[in-house]
């Protein structure tokens, strides 16, 4: 039984190679083929191409809008730390201004109560009151000079902060302007893309 089954399967596998069992290629009748083919109006092809072009135009506007949006976000990421640093500099400047103001007042009080200054002022008031204007000018100059000597480090720091603030202010203003421009352009392009969708019938 197993012998017959073996020889039977062998002969079946050989059948496929015989010419009468090879599947002939299908020959489609031209008339049948013509029944399937459908002529397309060139105007429809042109309209489809035009529609595709309109879609590309809309996509291009949206891509540009997205790119500008990304630039907006990138600018904001750069701008935020600058604004934070600007706030820090403002606080430090305010603090140092207070320190220098207090130092100026303390110097004025120390100088105005100095025995030599009091003695000299009394002599001027008694003997030459017309020199009081000159005395006051010299006194104010001496107060400023003494404060500058005592607060040299803080004054240098204040000047550095002023320069730093000016630079930060320039950068912040420039980036803020860029941010506003990118945002406005992005918004306009999205609006234009939506308008085109309506005009071309995609909405």
Write a brief structural summary.
The protein is mostly helical.
What descriptive keywords fit this protein?
203 residues, 6 helices, 0% strand, mainly alpha, Helix Hairpins, rod-shaped, disordered N terminus
List the helices and strands and how they pair.
Elements: H1 2-15, H2 30-36, H3 42-112, H4 115-127, H5 132-150, H6 152-199
Helix pairs in contact: 3-5, 3-6
**Can you give the mean pLDDT?**
87
User: Largest sheet, described in full?
Assistant: none
Q: Structural class of the secondary structure composition?
A: mainly alpha
What fold name stands as the CATH topology?
A: Helix Hairpins
CATH architecture: Orthogonal Bundle
Poorly predicted parts: 1-8
Strand tally is 0
Distance between the termini: 74 Å
* Radius of gyration, in angstroms, nearest whole number: 46 Å
Approximate helicity band: over 70%
Which CATH class is shown?
Answer: Mainly Alpha
Q: How would you characterize this protein structure?
A:
This protein has 203 residues and is mainly α. It has one domain (50-199): Helix Hairpins, CATH 1.10.287. 85% of the residues lie in helices and 0% in strands. The protein has six helices and no strands. It is rod-shaped.
């Amino acid at each position: 039984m197993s012998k017959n089954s073996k020889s039977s399967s062998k002969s079946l596998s050989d059948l496929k190679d015989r010419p009468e069992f090879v599947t002939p290629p299908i020959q489609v009748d031209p008339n049948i083929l013509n029944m399937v083919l459908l002529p397309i109006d060139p105007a429809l092809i042109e309209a489809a191409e035009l529609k595709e072009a309109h879609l590309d135009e809309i996509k291009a506007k949206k891509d540009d809008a997205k790119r500008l949006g990304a630039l907006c976000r990138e600018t904001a990421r750069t701008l935020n730390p600058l604004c934070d640093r600007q706030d820090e500099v403002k606080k430090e400047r305010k603090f140092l201004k207070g320190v220098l103001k207090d130092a100026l007042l303390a110097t004025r009080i120390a100088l105005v109560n100095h025995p030599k200054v009091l003695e000299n002022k009394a002599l001027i008031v008694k003997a030459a009151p017309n020199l009081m204007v000159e005395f006051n000018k010299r006194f104010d100059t001496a107060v400023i000079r003494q404060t500058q000597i005592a607060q040299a480090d803080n004054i240098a720091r204040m000047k550095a902060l002023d320069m730093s603030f000016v630079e930060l202010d320039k950068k912040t203003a420039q980036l803020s302007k860029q941010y506003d421009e990118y945002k406005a352009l992005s918004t306009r392009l999205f609006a234009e893309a939506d308008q085109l969708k309506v005009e071309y019938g995609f909405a």
